[in-house]
Amino acid sequence: MADLRCNVAGIRSPNPFWLASAPPTDKEYNVRRALAAGWGGVVWKTLGEDPPVVNVSSRYGAVSYHGKRVAGLNNIELISDRPLAVNLAELKSVKRDYPDRAIVASLMVPCTEDSWRAIVPLVEETGVDGFELNFGCPHGMSERNMGAAVGQVPEYVEMVTRWVKASTNLPVIVKLTPNVTDIRASGRAAKRGGADAVSLINTVQSIVGVDLDAMSPLPMVDGQGTHGGYCGPAVKPIALRMLAELGRDAEMGGLPMSGMGGIETWREAAEFIALGASGVQVCTAAMHHGFRIVEDMIGGLSNWMDSKGYATLDDVRGRALRNFVHWGDLNLAFETKAHIDHDACIGCGKCHVACEDTAHQAIAIEPGRRYTVIEEECVGCNLCSHVCPVDDCITMVPQEATATRQSWAERMREPAE
Amino acid sequence: MHARIEAGRLDAATLARNFADAHAPLTPARAAVEADRCYYCYDAPCIEACPTGIDIPGFIRRIAAHDLKGAGETILSANILGGSCARVCPTEILCEGACVRTLAGDGAVEIGALQRHATDHVMERGLQPFSRAPFTGRRIAIVGAGPAGLACAHALAMRGHGVTIFEARPRPGGLNEYGVAAYKLAGDFAQEEIAWLLGIGGIELAYDHPIASPAALSTLRATHDAVFLALGHGGVRALSAGANEFPGESLGGVEDAVAFIARLRSAADKASVPVGDRVVVIGGGNTAIDAAMQASRLGAREVTMLYRRGPGDMSATAFEREWAQTSGIQILFDAVPHSFDADDDEPGHVAAVNVFVRGEPRVIAADMVLKAIGQFYDAPLGDTLALESGRIAVDPEGRTSLQGVYAGGDCTKGADLTVVAVADGKRAAIAIHTDLMQPGS
Lengths: 417, 441
Ligand SMILES: Cc1cc2nc3c(=O)[nH]c(=O)nc-3n(C[C@H](O)[C@H](O)[C@H](O)COP(=O)(O)OP(=O)(O)OC[C@H]3O[C@@H](n4cnc5c(N)ncnc54)[C@H](O)[C@@H]3O)c2cc1C
Ligand SMILES: Cc1cc2nc3c(=O)[nH]c(=O)nc-3n(C[C@H](O)[C@H](O)[C@H](O)COP(=O)(O)O)c2cc1C
Ligand code: SF4
What we know:
Shape of chain A: globular
Strand order of the largest sheet of chain A: 3-4-7-8-9-10-15-16
Number of helices of chain A: 14
Shape of chain B: globular
Number of helices of chain B: 17
Strand order of the largest sheet of chain B: 3-2-1-4-17
CATH topology of the largest domain in chain B: FAD/NAD(P)-binding domain
Helix content of chain A: 25-40%
Distance between the termini of chain A: 58 Å
Largest sheet of chain B: 5 strands, parallel
Strand content of chain A: 15-25%
CATH architecture of the largest domain in chain A: Alpha-Beta Barrel
CATH superfamily of the largest domain in chain A: Aldolase class I
Structural class of chain A: alpha/beta
Bound molecules: flavin-adenine dinucleotide, flavin mononucleotide, iron/sulfur cluster
Number of domains of chain B: 3
Radius of gyration of chain A: 24 Å
CATH topology of the largest domain in chain A: TIM Barrel
CATH class of the largest domain in chain B: Alpha Beta
Largest interface: A-B, 13 and 15 residues
Oligomer: heterodimer
Largest sheet of chain A: 8 strands, parallel, barrel
């Protein structure tokens, strides 16, 4: 049984699965249920200054994809809407009963040194294991010069991080917003400010849909909508890229990362860890299915690690990063070609029309709906295998190398003939 | 009437249940899930398997995209009786049989049920997706208001021709009205659909107006620009063949299954339809199955089907056969009846069927015997029309041997199915239109 113990910048937990700062960690009741279910830690719902914010109704929009609910979730909720004192008392009580779990406090206050220096000691007194600075909330808070409004300006990120670091000895994680053009600018700023780790991603600015009768963005609040933050399975690819970008950035110097965005099972968690995350956080999947999903996340990760001979999370962490290269370093001499298994083929023709209409006219129809690849035309783009509804019917077969390995970068360096 | 043939065997509630929709319509939620199962195949085999060539992936995609009107129009533009066909087609041997998901092993998309979902939407709202072109001045006579005649009439009316349908019976619909099992076209769906279809305008119906002689056909040809024959089958096969008399065939209680079904379909109150206590049905086609199922649903206690060959040879589909077998109908295979015995107390009435089952003689008590051993075209228009295998000979577009006379549906070759009749009617309409609108014609 693999050792799943996790350490993010000195914050330890029995497994790498934390609940992200969000409704699942809004109050003691939920958090106790989560910890009893087996979650390794929680990042408490973001605390702010009193008086607390006021939330609207409704608050969530979701994307259903072909019958699958909540492929993506969008929210227009703000930070904790409960008085600070209530949250602090509950944090203290939970931490006392769960000394082995990671209990992290998420913070967001106005962008002034006094505000940050005031709240940090109050929270530290509860016995929490560390702080997460919420510079990511993409709606509501940024209009008040908090959240993403800070996260989008590297200088502010650095400055606020510095204030917090000067106020506490506990580990400080800076949560990054994906609503920026270059995530490295934010990450590097956090590092310069003294962050012990970064976490990412917060939600992506979005309009989840439009009610075509009411002619209003969704979700609707009394006939109107606003942009919200998008998360859930749909955002995983965005999150993985940003995480990997920081993971391989020399200036980040291997600063620990807590990864999140669309994690639903152990498999996505393993992907984040393989791209450099020390631990992961989950929000939408818990909101969709309840806390017990952590059981199969723990079991699945452990079984997979056993099957691969990985003893600890450190054996997995960053393993895929070395293969995350720039496009210019990819081998141009490598070729694959599509191969259709005619025994598995059900004759739907989706590969044909995809290639014919939108790719390289490389799949011919032979009598009897027999679809075959014209190898000379196939460029190995992989579209057909993605649209084929039958598992493993179309495979991409690596071809015998006909030329030596050469990347675009190498090709550009070659002297002109 | 024989004591054991009686009406009102079951109470009204039970009868209502027995003759209600056999397959409940899809809920919107189920339809959405089912529509999402369609792969939207390129060159989809289901389209090829539909005799009317409905763009099945196209209409299903519209359902998935919540455009039910568009879905309905897609269906109806290829098959104007798409509502009936959704209910009566043996989809397991047509579109659904060809669905690639069958090959994939996870069950065909329920195309028939989805088709009903979309066409019901259009019909329940009385939407008329089609409009009539300006009157062409051409008049076409159609003989028979069954599926073939109606489909042809609609397609011609849409193209601006004037259409008159001559129908022998007092109501339109053909076997949709008098033949198909009641629980497949529950309620008054057949008539509602026809009323909707006639909404295009330009179609007149002359009821109780048989065209049953060569002379009557000549008159029609003389008074119309074209004639479409869609008379279906007038003849029902008898057990006695030529000199080989079948002992007892003329006994009371022995009748053609189609007559029994027609009586049942015409009865507004199913409690008024008499049925035997022990019913024997002879035959292995869908008519035999329907007769047996409906006799049972009327309250017959014992219903036995006698089929002369094995299960694989039946012309009824496997689905229909299993449905019957799981509905309490006993089917005896390799069962060849050779005579009926008369009742001792009532000598004019049948009491038993003598049959060889796998060569072994058996006697099956019966107070009602329904014969369903086949129908045929009885050539009421004489030999002025060339025949092929006993039916009116036509070219692939439906042209007969007589200039300006076309034919389709059960009276011509091809499978005896509603959808095939619709396809024939549509194809003939296009041929008539093309022929009439040719310059100089
Ligand atoms: C009991 C039974 C059950 C069936 N169940 C199914 C089923 O579940 N699914 C399926 O797809 N198919 C089924 N069929 C077959 C289907 O009903 C027929 O294939 C279809 O109705 C043929 O259409 P048609 O227009 O050619 O003929 P018909 O439906 O027979 O219509 C012919 C019309 O012409 C009229 N007519 C006849 N002679 C004259 C004349 N001389 N002058 C004027 N009018 C005339 C008739 O009164 C009738 O209205 C069933 C058939 C039977 C008998
Ligand atoms: C309803 C809702 C409220 C959230 N509130 C906060 C918050 O208060 N503070 C914060 O840092 N992130 C907040 N988030 C973002 C999540 O912590 C997390 O970063 C994001 O949902 C991506 O993870 P996921 O794909 O597993 O949901 C919220 C997300 C949701 C859905
Ligand atoms: S891999 Fe791309 S080019 Fe090759 S057959 Fe498939 S779709 Fe066409």
